[in-house]
Amino acid sequence: QVQLVESGGGLVQAGGSLRLSCAASGRTSSSYAVGWFRQAPGKEREFVAAVSWSAGITYYADSVKGRFTISRDNAKNTVYLQMNRVKPEDTAVYYCAADPGLNGWAPRRDLSYDYWGQGTQVTVSS
Predict the structure, then answer these.
(1) 94: alpha, beta or left, given left = phi > 0 and alpha = psi -120 to 50?
(2) 3-state secondary structure of 26
(3) 62-81 pLDDT, tens per residue?
(4) At 114, which helix (H) or strand (E)?
């Protein structure tokens, strides 16, 4: 089992920056990939970004490419999502998720991930 806790959400003005953190505990000795997803009110959950265990491979949604950066510090069991030049449409609850990779990894597919955090709210004001 892996437990995930997101932090760093809050209220930010459009054009500003925010850094989200996803701290993992539990069976963190296992290799796992991590993804960030978000869900806005009345909308389906959507993929934002993902990073492989070694951090050598990253994926981004087109809507955040060039503005958001995903990274990880395996020594701290933490994955980060640096959000720059945020827009009002980035407003959502952001979730991190872990995929042990036991059945392959589909980074953009939420069903690929076995463990989820409780989410952190990001609100971007215009």
Answers:
(1) beta
(2) strand
(3) 999 999 999 999 889 999 99
(4) none
